[in-house]
């Protein structure tokens, strides 16, 4: 039993409270989903459960928290560790040892459990999460999903009755994320473990959860109810729920199976709707801005790319998909010269990039790496942009005026226009690392596109973004595309691909195995089909807008 | 210890045994000895290699190390980063450097190779074969030490070494184990940051251009440290315990002081008996203090390394070998240990009993 009573909490030095007057009563044995935009206080609320807030973070806490009758504030996280297991976002950042078994034993060693009992306990915990085959493996040889399962096992070693997870799948690819979520569902069903989960990928968890807590951003009271009721009342939701709400399907479907009952009937009532024409860029015959021909890359004896041909034309968005290790990122990196191919040619703007350095190539091709934090270091957002310009030696005309005169920026300058477009107009003086995940990513985007490159390459841009930030990114990319930029996105996010792609390229084992319009490539694949394609098979629809536009 | 463990694990997963067994054995070293046994072995090597400069004994010891290296610690499969300097290459470099340095600095000996004018500071004077040989012997001893530690590095996982850290210093051991895993992540991080900056047109020029690399690294490192600290707290790890008594720490400190004093008495002032008394007293204080402090820090160890019969053999071998060089045993010609090529090159002596005792170092290669 978890009980929050008028809980308010303010981080040290913060002007506004992160949590305001939260009262909730959560029963045992449920699988509870916690949703809300980034910055709504999800992580803070979860950390109140085991006393990390306020013991680790400091700050002022008012009100009452009771976890299994204990007060996490009075007791310490050390005591609470026996009742609440905690799993963090990034599996790597929470490992203390370098081997699976040792990692699981760590909490038991701290609790001074007798060695004989400890053997049994580790053995059981390994079985619980199907980790027995991996028991002796060094952690660094595991995949992301396996690592997160080890982290869950490590949190469960002390047999807590509550398992708390803070966005455990946001750094994982869809397959790994599914593994992790399936394990959670099993733990909840088989052991009656209370699972509290903060998560952005609603489509996968919604069917399994008993209840949902929605934390609004503006300090209003949280909504706590069964999934259908909450989904009805909040704006964010997976495509299936959005369509269900727009077409007033009752009760609101949460799984494709439930949705199909409505969609078949609806299609029969709207026979003219099917067969919507998709925007198709006419690129045949146009000169590609970035072109790879027969590109081969080997790491040692391992062939990562085996003769890849890819053309990227101005004014189109190409989405590159495929399993982990298919060579997607390597291809992206070779296009900007970070990896030099063993064979084949790469042309940017008509000229071969062999022999040109990365900095030089990147003036024509913007590249956004997976982790935007690696890019940011300057004192302010504006300064980040100037740094890139200075790096490229851009000093002429419009920009120079501004570099010399950064105290009084001209409102009509290209810099303000760029910031405006990225929704960062009022953040020009902010310290980049203090911004939210989505904002930080947009600053990084600004920093790589300030030279107005003809092409933009993005590596997994939706990782860790909430629905709002994701939609903002989609709009931005489409706008740039319409301005004539050539855009290549590597992603696992099928909904993103469905929303923005003009062309989808599928890779496997270093080769391109399929290429074509999104409806053809995505619609047919069981692994990559977006929810709408599953809901309305053979209509060619991929997004909520396709459906609503047709009706 | 492994035969027993794999058996147990195998029995538990019997149904899917085949694939699982393959995966299990892949990451399992075929035979491991107790870390304490390895510690005794490397200690004996350190003692012998620091004492003797007799080329015959040196060659014998290095040959035995090479044997153990070949039997117990084959070259690890290259996983990109693990390749450090091979002992052979290190040996060549160190022997050459030491020989050249010695021959250039020490102008003693009768076999003059050539002479530089005496007015040149340091280098001036006769360059002798004796100095060259003695320098090379020093280099050989150093190379032997390096080879010995290469064996330890390859056979002992970090966690086993950390388990040797006394219980009182458990938090220190945890911090060290984190550092060990932190280093590779940080290196990967540096690479990522370097690329991210190159992508926005950054080129490395001058000191100021390091800023874009250092700041994300520091901030990223800070963030990861905080996350890790949080994760450890959530799993019941408490850094320093508040209830620690004062006296065990003082005892440890006092023990150290006494040991150093006793050692000085023996070596510098040649006071054998009082020196030995101080050494013993210091050791007692040190061990007692550590033991007491350890008791106030409750924690247990998962799958502790088990002491086996062959561990005794390794320790016995190390003791015999080191004892032959250290102790003034009757019937042993200890003079053969100390070899000087000065004033003129001479054939080193060889006592077969010492040679035989040295073979004790081969114990880890026997199974």
How would you characterize this protein structure?
The complex is a heterodimer of chains A (551) and B (367). Chain A is of the alpha/beta class and 551 residues long. Chain A has four domains: 2-233, P-loop containing nucleotide triphosphate hydrolases (Rossmann fold); 238-278 and 519-551, no CATH class; 281-364 and 453-516, Rossmann fold (3-Layer(aba) Sandwich), CATH 3.40.50; 373-452, no CATH class. Helices cover 36% and strands 20% of the residues of chain A. Chain A contains 22 helices and 19 strands. In chain A, the strands form four sheets. A six-stranded mixed β-sheet of chain A has the order 5-6-7-3-8-9, with helices on both faces. A six-stranded mixed β-sheet of chain A has the order 15-16-17-12-18-19, sandwiched between helices. Chain A has a four-stranded antiparallel β-sheet with strand order 11-10-13-14, with helices on one face. In chain A, helix 7 (174-191) links the parallel strand 6 and strand 7 (194-198). The radius of gyration of chain A is 25 Å and the shape is globular. Chain A starts with a strand and ends with a helix. Residues 400-411 of chain A have low confidence and may be disordered. Chain B is mainly α and 367 residues long. Among the domains of chain B are: 34-165 and 304-365, no CATH class; 245-296. Chain B has 13 helices and two strands. Chain B has helices at residues 2-12, 17-26, 35-51, 55-72, 87-105, 129-155, 158-163, 170-199, 211-234, 247-267, 272-295, 309-326, 352-358; strands at residues 112-116, 125-128. Chain B has a two-stranded antiparallel sheet with strand order 1-2. In chain B, helix 3 (35-51) packs antiparallel against helix 6 (129-155), helix 4 runs parallel beside helix 6 (129-155) and helix 8 packs antiparallel against helix 9. The longest helix of chain B is centred in the middle third of the chain and has 30 residues, at 170-199. Chain B starts with a helix and ends in a 9-residue tail after the last helix. At the A-B interface, strand 5, helix 4, helix 5 and helix 14 of A face helix 2, helix 8 and helix 9 of B.
């Amino acid at each position: 039993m978890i009980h929050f009573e008028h809980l308010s909490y303010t981080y040290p030095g913060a002007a506004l409270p992160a949590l305001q007057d939260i009262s909730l009563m959560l029963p045992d044995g449920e699988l509870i989903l916690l949703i809300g935009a980034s910055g709504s206080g999800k992580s803070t609320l979860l950390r109140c459960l085991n006393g990390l807030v306020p013991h680790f973070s400091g700050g002022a806490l008012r009100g009452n928290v009771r976890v299994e009758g204990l007060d996490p504030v009075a007791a310490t996280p050390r005591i609470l560790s026996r009742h609440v297991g905690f799993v963090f976002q990034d599996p790597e950042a929470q490992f203390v040892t370098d081997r699976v078994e040792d990692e699981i034993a760590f909490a038991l060693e701290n609790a001074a459990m007798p060695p004989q009992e400890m053997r049994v306990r580790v053995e059981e915990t390994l079985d619980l999460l199907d980790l027995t085959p991996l028991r002796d493996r060094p952690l660094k040889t595991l995949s992301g999903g396996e690592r997160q399962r080890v982290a869950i096992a490590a949190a469960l070693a002390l047999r807590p009755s509550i398992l708390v997870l803070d966005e455990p799948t946001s750094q994982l690819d869809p397959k790994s994320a599914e593994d992790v979520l399936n394990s959670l569902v099993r733990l909840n069903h088989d052991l009656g473990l209370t699972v509290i989960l903060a998560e952005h990928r609603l489509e996968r968890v919604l069917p399994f959860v008993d209840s949902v807590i929605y934390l609004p951003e503006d300090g209003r009271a949280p909504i706590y109810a069964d999934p259908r009721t909450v989904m009805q009342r909040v704006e964010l939701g997976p495509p299936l729920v959005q369509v269900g709400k727009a077409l007033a399907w009752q009760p609101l479907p949460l799984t494709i199976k439930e949705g199909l009952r409505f969609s078949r009937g609806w299609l029969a009532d709207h026979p003219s709707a099917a067969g919507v024409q998709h925007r198709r860029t006419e690129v045949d015959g146009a000169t590609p801005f970035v072109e790879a021909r027969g590109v081969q890359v080997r790491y040692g004896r391992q062939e990562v790319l085996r003769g890849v041909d890819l053309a990227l034309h101005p004014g189109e968005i190409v989405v590159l998909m495929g399993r982990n290790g298919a060579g997607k990122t390597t291809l992206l990196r070779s296009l900007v010269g970070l990896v030099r191919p063993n064979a084949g040619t790469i042309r940017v703007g008509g000229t071969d990039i062999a022999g040109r350095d990365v900095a030089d190539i990147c003036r024509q091709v913007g590249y956004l790496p997976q982790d935007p934090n690696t890019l940011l270091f300057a004192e302010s957002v504006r300064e980040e942009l100037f740094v890139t310009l200075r790096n490229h030696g851009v000093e002429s005309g419009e920009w120079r005026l501004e570099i010399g005169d950064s105290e009084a920026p001209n409102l009509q300058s290209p810099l303000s226009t760029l910031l405006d477009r990225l929704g960062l107009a009022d953040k020009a003086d902010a310290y980049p690392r203090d911004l939210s995940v989505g904002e930080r990513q947009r600053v990084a985007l600004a920093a790589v596109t300030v030279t107005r490159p003809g092409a933009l390459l993005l590596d997994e841009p939706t990782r860790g973004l909430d629905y709002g930030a994701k939609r903002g990114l989609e709009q931005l990319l489409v706008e740039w595309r319409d301005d004539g930029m050539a855009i290549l996105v590597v992603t696992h996010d099928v909904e993103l691909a469905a929303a923005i792609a003009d062309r989808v390229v599928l890779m496997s084992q270093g080769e391109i195995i399929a290429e074509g319009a999104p409806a053809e490539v995505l619609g047919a694949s069981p692994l990559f089909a977006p929810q709408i394609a599953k809901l309305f098979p053979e209509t060619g629809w991929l997004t909520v807008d396709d459906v609503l536009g047709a009706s | 210890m492994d035969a027993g463990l794999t058996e147990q694990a195998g029995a538990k997963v019997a149904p899917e045994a085949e694939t699982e067994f393959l995966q299990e054995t892949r990451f399992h070293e075929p035979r491991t000895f107790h870390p304490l046994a390895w510690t005794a072995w490397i200690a004996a090597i350190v003692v012998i290699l620091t004492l003797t400069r007799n080329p015959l004994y040196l060659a014998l010891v290095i040959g035995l190390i090479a044997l153990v290296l070949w039997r117990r610690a084959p070259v690890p499969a290259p996983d990109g980063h693990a390749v450090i300097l091979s002992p052979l290459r290190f040996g060549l470099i160190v022997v050459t450097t030491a020989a050249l340095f010695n021959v250039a600095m020490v102008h003693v000996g009768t076999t003059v190779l050539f002479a530089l004018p005496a007015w040149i500071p340091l280098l001036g004077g006769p360059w002798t074969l004796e100095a060259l040989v003695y320098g090379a012997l020093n280099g050989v001893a150093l190379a032997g030490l390096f080879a010995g530690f290469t064996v330890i590095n390859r056979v002992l996982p970090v966690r086993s070494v950390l388990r040797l850290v006394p219980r009182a210093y458990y938090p220190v051991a945890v911090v060290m184990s984190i550092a060990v895993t932190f280093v590779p992540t940080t290196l990967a991080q540096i690479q990522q940051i370097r690329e991210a900056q190159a992508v926005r047109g950054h080129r490395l020029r001058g000191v100021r251009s390091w800023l874009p690399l250092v700041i994300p690294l520091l901030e990223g490192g800070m963030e990861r440290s905080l996350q890790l600290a949080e994760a450890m707290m959530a799993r019941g790890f408490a850094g320093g315990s508040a209830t620690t008594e004062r006296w065990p720490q003082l005892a440890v400190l006092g023990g150290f002081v006494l040991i150093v004093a006793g050692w000085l008495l023996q070596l510098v002032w040649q006071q054998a008996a009082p020196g030995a008394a101080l050494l013993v007293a210091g050791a007692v204080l040190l061990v007692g203090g550590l033991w007491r402090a350890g008791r106030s820090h409750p924690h247990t160890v998962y799958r502790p390394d088990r002491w086996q019969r062959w561990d005794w053999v390794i320790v016995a071998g190390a003791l015999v070998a080191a004892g032959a060089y250290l102790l003034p045993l009757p019937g042993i010609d200890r003079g053969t240990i100390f070899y000087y090529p000065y004033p003129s090159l001479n054939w080193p002596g060889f006592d077969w009993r010492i040679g035989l005792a040295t073979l004790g170092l081969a114990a880890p290669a026997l199974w």
